[in-house]
Amino acid sequence: MSASAIDLIGVGSPIMDLLAPVPEDFLTQHVAGDKGGMVLVNDAEMSGILAHLPTAPATSTGGSAANATLNATRLGLRTTFLGKLGNCDVAATYRNRFAALGIDTSRFKTGTVPNARSLILTTPDADRTMRTDLGAAMTLSPDEISPADFAGCRHAHIEGYLVFNEALINAVLAAARTAGCTVSMDLASFEVINATRPWIFSQLAEGFDIIFANEDEIRALFEDTTTPYDQLARRLASHGVTAAVKVGKDGAWIARGDELHRIEPVLVDNVVDTNGAGDSWAAGFLSAHLRGKSLAESGRIASHVGAETVKHLGPIIPDEAFAPLKARLG
Q: Boundaries of each Carbohydrate kinase PfkB domain copy (predicted)?
């Protein structure tokens, strides 16, 4: 793949997901912290939780931006990924799975410790609680990032979890902007926002093109528990971005300038797992938006891709379900 042929570069942590359905009381008995969201853990804490699982977890390539990149590839974009893999068999499996889908893997960096992994605990209500050991991904240094990593890429999609490392996210944004990329970011988690709100607003002033947020994240960003979501989308758009505010089973709002679009939900009768649904939504939106589709049409496609994801365990839509999905998208 030539550098000039890349529509989208995902930037984030290449994490191998460990997928485990658990009963509600598993969280109170074996997992420190609140239900929902994502909390970083070390290797010992991860091993302690894994030891108490009722069954062995399934595995899937994961990481927020990586999930979005993978699905955007399946939807027809030419893609690459920037992140740091480990020095283990898990890392080799991860790279090989990306390469098999046609994702350019030349911009992966390799560390000297094992690969990142994230345990996704899904309760019967389909809510997910994530505990993540960043491993090699956490060793990615600002000094390893340069505009050359983004050369020839039209758009960079960055996961919000990188904001926990301010020096790294600053280096990523500077390099992407220098290389001429448009930039989107998924706000990722209310924990990310609560810890880094001043930085987020400072960077909105510097310039983003698209911000993705769910209902918890947009309320955390503005510290506002009552304003309707359409108005919060307009408030975010007033910072000069395209604001994509996802509100679960109620659909989404997309705002840009004077535009405001209500995106109808695609209803799902049997929700299995919400893990990765937001990443899939972003993939659907970006796959359409970067091909010149309208905001409303991009949102429609995003809604279908996100809805298909929640029908299956894990963040990756199975191959047998993806072909019918693409047919529905038109």
A: 56-318
- What CATH superfamily classification does 3-13+63-110+150-325 receive? Ribokinase (3.40.1190.20)
Stated length of the chain: 330
pLDDT at 313: 80
For the chain, domain boundaries: 3-13+63-110+150-325
Q: What is the DSSP letter of 37?
A: S
Two tokens, residue 299 = 């949102």
Specify the 3-state DSSP secondary structure of 245: strand
| Cα–Cα separations (whole angstroms), residue 140 to 45, 83, 108, 116, 182 | 22, 7, 11, 12, 22
Residue 89 has φ and ψ, to the nearest 5°, of: -65, -35
**pLDDT one-digit tens code per residue, 3-37:** 458 999 999 999 998 999 999 999 999 999 889 87
Q: Helix, strand, or coil here: 59?
A: strand
Q: Is 79 helix (H, G, I), strand (E, B) or coil?
A: strand
Q: Report the pLDDT value the prediction gives residue 40, as an integer from 0 to 100.
A: 87
d(CA 306, CA 266): 9
- Which of 208-217, 236-245, 266-275 shows the lowest per-residue confidence on average (mean pLDDT)? 266-275
d(CA 31, CA 25): 10
In eight-state DSSP terms, residue 208 is: -
**230 is written with which tokens?**
């359409």
Number of neighbours of residue 235 by Cβ within 10 angstroms: 17
Give, as one character, the DSSP assignment of residue 290. Answer: T
Q: Is the Cβ–Cβ distance between 75 and 286 less than 8 Å?
A: no
- pTM of the predicted structure, to 2 decimals: 0.89
